[in-house]
Amino acid sequence: MSQYYIPSGGGGGSPGGSDTQVQFNDGGAFGGSAGLTWDKTNKVLAVAGGAVTASHPVLSLSQTWNNAAVAFTGLVFNVTNTASDVGSLFLDFQKGGSSYLAFGRAPDADEPKIISNAVSGALRFGNANGAMRILADAGGTTFIQTTQSNVLFSGLFGVAATTIGFSGTNINFVSQAYTATPTVGTGYVVMQVAGVNYKFIVST
């Protein structure tokens, strides 16, 4: 009589946790957590961190790049924008359930948009040597500052009129040389750069 070897199957057991919870090895048994779920209909993986008293990032990624001939990419999020509202966001960092810093698309152009909903409404760029703040007030004036009280530049840009202001002791235009002697009038200065006249209103 012929003999056959039938290998045994893999390990068995009941899934841990509840429906939609991702399975993991929990001390040698199937485990599940309400903070780690998979929505198969919408293909959404949800990770909810808990309350921590020390630094434990909810997502920690690492990778080693080891080929000088390759331009690597660490993270990709590719959106096919078949139809969407202009307020759609690619990334939304929130604090207390409210948007704090978001990256979206501009409503009138296919270009990136950075949105700051911090109390000051400002974006701060800085390092150990100092910082620069960029913000726009409710009236539409754009400011560039080193601190809230030190304004380097302010401008209200519109179709009907454009107002630009500077503060500080020196104003330098280094991209183009003047093509005509500046004209000084009452309350304004006209400078010609690359054949184009620019009128600066001087006010106190």
**Apparent shape:** elongated
Helices and strands: which structural class? mainly beta
Q: What is the subunit arrangement here?
A: single chain
Radius of gyration: 29 Å
- Widest sheet: strand ordering: 8-9-10-11-12
The run of helices and strands is EEEEEEEEEEEEEEE
- Structure summary, number of beta strands: 15
How much helical structure, as a percent, in the residues?
under 10%
* Main beta-sheet strand count, sense and barrel state: 5 strands, antiparallel
Detail the poorly predicted runs.
Answer: 158-162, 169-178
**Number of helices, where a helix is a run of at least 4 consecutive DSSP H or I residues:** 0
Mean pLDDT: 76
